[in-house]
Amino acid sequence: MPSNSTKILLLITLVSGMLVSVSSNSWIGAWMGLEVNLMSFIPLMSNIKNMYNTEASLKYFIVQVLASATLLFMVVMKTVTEDLFTLTNVGTPYTPMIVCTPLLLKSGAAPFHWWFPGVMEGLSWENCGLLMTIQKAAPMMLMSYLIEINPFMLMIILASTIVGAIGGLNQTSMRKILTYSSINHTGWMLMAMITGDNMWTMYFVIYSTLVLTVLSVIKLSSVSFINQTMMTNKEAKLMKFMMFTSLLSLGGLPPFLGFLPKWFIIQAMTMNKLMPMATMMVIMSLITLYYYLKISYSSFMILNTEPKWNSQSHKNSTTKNVSAMILSSISLTGAVLCTIIIGTN
């Protein structure tokens, strides 16, 4: 486990690698940025005292190396066969599909998501947040230069939304629930790239904010599994309420903040005559909302009990409750923004 100073250095290098990748004007430079980002994240994941952390870091390393090697091979081959192959000049019509495949593997989009749940299950909450937000930024930005409406990308988007919705059903681990939710959101972000120029960046910022909010509240609540949400005392009920407010916002329930980007994307899809896709994606989002609501209903309606040995554990929970309220209030800003947007229209 790296020390605090080492963690800070690795985080700076991680963000620097991401910035190098997204600001590069060549594919070789973008690949180098991705590798710097990867080499900074692996030490943050590893912990010799925890077998699950080490296993997760090894899985992540193997998958990312496979994706990076494939990306480098394809970039070199395209550079050799074409006179000008830059981030914006894609060459042949098949180039976006060829180059996007390893980037989809890096970002954990379906059907390249097979590594994502297993890696997430072995990480700490802080590293889960990094994997679902910062580690997606560079591959998504690179894909935004290439992505266009074609059957391949529509299949990837549909697969991501379906897998993200169906995979989260009957899960008991909060990490796996958030993992499949992230896969579902990846499909929405890819659709945002197709339908709008910079719409996906707004979606990504809101998604990252909500994910970090949910993870912060879950960490403050010390919850890793669904059944732990039912073993709380009276002082922790406010924390539990804030946690599920954040989860429902992440699921896109109106009028929370998470509903806004999906609303904009549905409008853009309607303008681009993609109504069947929009209908399917909305249905899949309703499934994700179903298991969030099921967790919330079970947690609040079932009689809570607490052992005597745990009765003192939340006596000093005032600071935690205040922190959770501040974080979860971000989700409630969606109601204000919805009112403003509807009023201006």
Structural commentary:
With 345 residues, the protein is mainly α. The protein has 2 domains: 1-146, no CATH class; 147-345, no CATH class. It is 73% helix and 0% strand. It has 14 helices and no strands. It has helices spanning 4-23, 27-45, 51-81, 95-107, 116-121, 125-132, 134-146, 151-166, 174-195, 199-221, 237-251, 259-271, 275-301, 318-344. α1 runs antiparallel to α2 (27-45), α9 runs antiparallel to α10 (199-221) and α10 (199-221) runs antiparallel to α11 (237-251). It is globular and about 65 Å long. The N and C termini lie far apart (53 Å). The relative contact order is 0.09. Residues 308-316 have low confidence and may be disordered.
Structural class: mainly alpha
Q: Low-confidence parts lasting 5 or more residues at pLDDT below 50?
A: 308-316
What number of domains? 2
The SSE string, one letter per element, is HHHHHHHHHHHHHH
Instruction: Kindly provide the radius of gyration, computed on alpha-carbon positions and rounded to a whole number of angstroms.
Output: 21 Å
Largest β-sheet summary: none
**Anisotropy-based shape:** globular
Rounded average pLDDT: 83
Strand content: under 5%
Helix run count: 14
Family: Belongs to the complex I subunit 2 family.
Protein name: NADH-ubiquinone oxidoreductase chain 2
GO molecular function, one term: NADH dehydrogenase (ubiquinone) activity
Pfam families: Proton_antipo_M
